Amino acid sequence: MTRVPSVKPFGACYRTENVPGTRVGYAVPDIQLVLHSNDVVWRINGANSMVTVRRDVICLGFLDGGVNARTSVVIGGLQLEDNLIEFDLASNRLGFSSTLLGLRTNCANFNFAPTASGRYVM
């Protein structure tokens, strides 16, 4: 990938030539957020990590909070798009999927009605 000058507010920007698109966004390395164990990993792929800022330029969609950041980490709308998040308040747990695009669906057409088994149909 060829680095190009930053496009505010993003820092790391690249030319799109030689970066093929896939069903799950640009073909860039996955970002893996390893939570409490190596078995609990949230994979963020090109659709949720790269922002198209011009027809020929993409940028890493994470922002630097600065020297006096108000929070340590913020997961933004781009990272959450087409991922399912489940808040289990009774068990004080958080569940998540990686992108639904890999399953050939997205949040816009996901069937949120549970089946008789309690599972959701995709």
TrEMBL record:
It holds the Pfam family TAXi_C. Coiled coil: none annotated. Residues 1-97 form the Peptidase A1 domain. Belongs to the peptidase A1 family. This is Peptidase A1 domain-containing protein. It comes from Brassica cretica (Mustard).
